[in-house]
Amino acid sequence: MEKFIPEREPDGFAVRFWVFCGERERCTRYVSPNGLVKASETIRREPVPVPDELRERRRELGFDYGKFDFVMHEGRAVLLDANKTPGRPQNLVKMFAAGASDLTHGFEGLIHRAK
Question: Which residues, 6+ apart, have CB-to-CB distance to 12 below 8 Å?
Fold first, then answer.
């Protein structure tokens, strides 16, 4: 893992969060006026693709479920944190609930794969 290197924006800074469960996933880029970007303090967010190099890192680490925090820096993905037990900010519960319903299908896939 690397030191914190936020993506610079005209109105602040950005970081990306990739949440996954089995084959299900969501990857979102959050922009905040603060240098330490927290999902609960964002001014905007947008879905973004997952870089192939992070998919490879996930395989190397053996993660079936989790969250990777990363930024794009000089054209490459920089992994900042790898979480096996991701949480959620209280003020974004409704937004996360919508995405979580899709991730539950990932658990089903993991169960079928384990049989």
Answer: 31, 32, 33, 34, 37, 43
| Number of residues in the chain | 115
Q: How far is CA 67 from CA 47, 93, 98, 112, in A?
A: 15, 16, 16, 22
* Side-chain-side CA neighbours of residue 47 (13 Å): 5
Q: What is the full per-residue pLDDT of the chain (115 aa) written as tens digits? A: 556 677 888 999 999 999 999 999 999 999 999 888 777 788 999 999 999 999 999 999 999 999 999 999 989 999 999 998 766 555 555 555 555 666 666 666 666 666 6
Neighbours of 114 (CB within 10 A): 7
Predicted model pTM: 0.72
- What CA–CA distance (Å, rounded) separates 82 from 20? 11
**15 DSSP β-pair partners:** 30
